[in-house]
Amino acid sequence: MLRRLRAAFRHSAFLLLAAFGHAFGQNVGEYPVKAAFLLNFARYTDWPTQNVAALDPKLTLCIIGNDPFGPSLAPLEGKRVQGREVRIRRGVTLDSLGQCELLFVPESEEPRLGSILHAARGRAMLTVSDIDGFVEAGGMIGLLVAEQRVRFDVNLDAIRGGNLWLSAQVLRLARTVIGAREPR
């Protein structure tokens, strides 16, 4: 019973986020909405328990390259996700990706996308980007703006390759899901 209530609450919270994405057209900037999506993706992702980083009391959200968020990520710093405090790291390099559980790849990194995805492959790190064709290139979650709403696509094969699990509630809200869905 408690499990159902928690699932219903999570689903409701994510639906509110989807509605908030609609507010983008109503004077809410694109990147504050994308920041809220990042936080919720972290809330609805299960990382492997054998992952050493999962034992860290902090969950690290990294930005590689130019940071398009500006002050939009500041409200996320210190928030709790699955009992862990969110830490933001900007300007990470390919060599320091091992410290990240969630990696945002901005459009500025499109020329290096192949190298970034190659370095992230096989790691328990959720990769998210707003680069066109990100999920088709092997990224996990691609953000896009359609009809003045922030939407997202999911690549389940990439998520499984990182030994991660994304909630079914998130998959239902995705615009497109690449890869076969498996029951959990």
Question: What does this protein look like?
Answer:
30% of the residues lie in helices and 25% in strands. It is an alpha/beta fold and 184 residues long. It has one domain (2-178): 3-Layer(aba) Sandwich (Rossmann fold), CATH 3.40.50. The chain has an eight-stranded mixed sheet with strand order 3-4-2-5-6-7-8-10, sandwiched between helices. Strands 1-9 form a two-stranded antiparallel sheet. A hairpin with a 2-residue loop joins strand 3 and strand 4 (84-92). The chain is globular, with a radius of gyration of 15 Å. The model is unreliable at 1-16 and 18-26 (pLDDT under 50).
Topology:
Layout: H1 2-22, H2 30-43, E1 45-46, E2 58-64, E3 80-81, E4 84-92, E5 102-105, H3 113-120, E6 126-129, E7 141-146, E8 149-155, H4 156-161, E9 165-166, H5 168-173, E10 176-178
Parallel strand pairs: 2-4, 2-5, 5-6, 6-7, 8-10
Antiparallel strand pairs: 1-9, 3-4, 7-8
Helix pairs in contact: 1-2
